[in-house]
Amino acid sequence: MSELKADNDENVTRTELQQESDRMLVDQKIPPKIIGARKNDNDNRTHEVRNSIISGSLAGMVSVTLFHPFDVIRTKMQATTELVAKSAPSAATTSGISSKSGPITVFSHTIKNGGLRAFYTGFSSPLIAQACYKSCVFTTNRLTQSLIKDVRSNSLSSYQLTLVDHFICGASAGAVNALIFVSPVEYVRSQLIAQHTHIAEGTTHLLKYGIMKGPIDVVKATYKEKGIFGLWKGAGITLVRDSVGCGSFFLAFALGQKHLPSITGAEPSSKINTIGAGMMAGCSYWASSLPLDALKTLVQTGKANSARETFLYLLKRDGATATFKQLYNGWQLAFGRGCPSAAVTLTTYSTAYQFFSTRFA
């Protein structure tokens, strides 16, 4: 009898403890089953971020290695836009390439004055930066999507992202990336590419900091004169460009993923659909951001003091049609590089992310 009584007392104690635990959970408005689910969600989110950072880094390095020469030629073409002395005291060019030069002319000029090596001018900083760029963009976009889903989902159904959501998430990713990484790296690259043109034309006396050997010299010279924030010259227009561009990029990619399977007849996650959606994303990025990119180049190379003032001046001087024609200078390189580059980037990212998710979950 005493043993039976002890068992009953023990059961009562356990029941009381369970009831107390349940009351605590109710007071905190946390259902018991969610405790374990939250721990799993946190673990999954950690793996998600890690895999996205690694995959984005790989995608960025592969892309920039293959397509950096296109960026060099495009930047040279954009830097030839002719402005008045107020906005660009060093706008004139004496020979070689001009605002009317096409990609073939710029290509030949670059080969003649620097050889194949010139196509990788300023390459070291973009190589490192692209690893940071892509990991930041893809990870921020993925986390923003997860946040929206968490906020808008309920216990009965999971929220499906709309096209507007895809644009907002992409724009957020572009803005974060522009402020942290893109502005200083592209400032350095633009300085070095503009320098190459001046050297070829014998106008090195127009170089503000003299001839610089590489990215480190640009950073030192800029820091000495303007401080660390001098490297963020043109950050405002870069922020606008990347917000609009990345928003359009992920919007077009989502559209491609949605509609291409019905055209190709392949699975939505197949390589052919990823490549096709990636090319759509690349075209969308440059179609929306190339004029902003041209203004950014003019500001960062010192040919313009303000993107807004320069745009309004060109609009007043040349009219809308001629202005947009100038700001789309280098479009052949932008689209010729942007479409396949985006396809390579997204395919590399998707493949790498799937690999790491299955093996290191």
UniProtKB/TrEMBL annotation:
Main location: mitochondrion
Biased composition (Basic and acidic residues): 1-13
GO cellular component: mitochondrial membrane
Keyword flag Ribonucleoprotein: no
Membrane topology term: Multi-pass membrane protein
InterPro entries: MCP, MCP_dom_sf, MCP_transmembrane, Mitochondrial_Carrier
UniProt-listed Gene3D superfamilies: Mitochondrial carrier domain (1.50.40.10)
Superkingdom field: Eukaryota
Keyword annotations of the record: Membrane, Mitochondrion, Repeat, Transmembrane, Transmembrane helix, Transport
Keyword Membrane: yes
Biological processes annotated in GO: mitochondrial L-ornithine transmembrane transport
Chain positions of Solcar repeats: 47-147, 161-259
GO molecular function, one term: L-ornithine transmembrane transporter activity
Compartment annotation: Mitochondrion membrane
Disordered as annotated region, ranges: 1-25
Family: Belongs to the mitochondrial carrier (TC 2.A.29) family.
PANTHER family with a match to the protein in the record: MITOCHONDRIAL BASIC AMINO ACIDS TRANSPORTER-RELATED, MITOCHONDRIAL ORNITHINE TRANSPORTER 1
Name of the protein in its database record: Mitochondrial carrier protein
Source organism (scientific name): Chaetoceros tenuissimus
